[in-house]
Amino acid sequence: MNTVTGPYRRDVRDWIVDLSMFLLALVFAAMTLLDFPPPGPPHGDVPVITVPDHPTWWEAAERLAALAACTSLWWRRRWPVQIAVSLIALSVVTDLVSGALLIALFSLALHRPPKVSLVVFGLGIASVGLKSLVLPDPHLPALIAFLLSVAVQGAVIGWGLSVHHRRELVDSLRERAVHAETEAQLRAEHAQHQVREAMAREIHDVLGHRLSLLSVHAGALEYRPDAPAEEIARSAKVIRESAHQALQDLREVIGVLRAPVGELPQPTMADLRQLVEEADEAGARVAFTEDYDGTVPDRTGRTAYRIVQEGLTNVRKHAPGADTRVSVRGAPGEGLTVEVRNGRAPAPVPRGGSDGQGLVGLTERVSLLSGRLEHGPTPGGGWRLSAWLPWPA
Prior knowledge:
Keywords: ATP-binding, Kinase, Membrane, Nucleotide-binding, Phosphoprotein, Transferase, Transmembrane, Transmembrane helix, Two-component regulatory system. Pfam families: HisKA_3. It catalyses: ATP + protein L-histidine = ADP + protein N-phospho-L-histidine. Its EC number is 2.7.13.3. This protein is α+β, with helices and mostly antiparallel strands. Among the domains are: 12-135, no CATH class; 269-345 and 355-393, 2-Layer Sandwich (Heat Shock Protein 90). It is built from 10 helices and 7 strands. The chain has helices at 12-32, 56-72, 80-91, 98-111, 114-134, 142-223, 229-258, 272-281, 298-318, 357-368; strands at residues 34-35, 48-49, 286-292, 324-331, 335-342, 372-377, 383-389. The strands form 2 sheets. It has a 5-stranded mixed β-sheet with strand order 3-4-5-7-6, covered by helices on one side. It has a two-stranded antiparallel sheet with strand order 1-2. The two termini are 60 Å apart.
């Protein structure tokens, strides 16, 4: 709905439309002065300008009123109600404002709510009835003239309301399009945020495991500088291999981030044994048992791998050297149970600044699969990390 409340500035189209409406109202007023007398002498069928049986001042007042009515159309967008009501009142005493009145009624229906337009239309019907008493049409019966005037005003109001509703529909569709575009952009940003969170979890899981191996062996070399040469060489080899593998993992992550489409390389259940062997080589003393039949779904297998990886990483951080048991058991229809349990650390380990984001990430992974994750201390002073993951039959 177009409602002008502040200073209104016309563009080129508005100037053309307003000038056209002004000239159209003037032409309508001039044609109202023409009269078509009955056929016959002295004029036949040629229209002439008749001189009504009114005083000269009345004729001048009518023409000034018609000029003022046509001029008022220039402000019909700003004050459509006031101008329409004023022209309705003038139409009772003069026919010269009829053209300006119809244009004002159309503009009113276009720029104001339908309720306001219908109220003003009611005033127009009343003015037509009053006019039939004040200025009866000499060529038409009163009832026919009344119905014709009401029909013309009703048609103009209806046309204006139709254009009004069509503009509202277009504006509504435009707003919906803008809203849909904004919503699509928000969904894309949300999806991008989720992808970034997934990338962060993958980087934490992949590099955290490798770097924890480096930390364990580097710490052993620091605290045992007098270790046998074979043990030092073995630790240096593990450090070199772990650093090399960490760089390879980092290259893969960066490659995926640079690629337009892609995913991080994902582990499977087949990689679990290699993961446990790496931890065992680092001195974690891990016992691994597998007891499941069938092929584990890829997504469930990846989540199981990440659970074991996080559990072994936490053992190296908080209980290095502790006896650790990793068990994976289950069957289709029963689910897959993954457990990492470690005993008490051989020596007290100072608590670092771990923020527990690994367990938070695991909780998110398991919840996405509608599984369950439990973790906490055991009576013997160790730690237990256990998860149940659904495995459809």
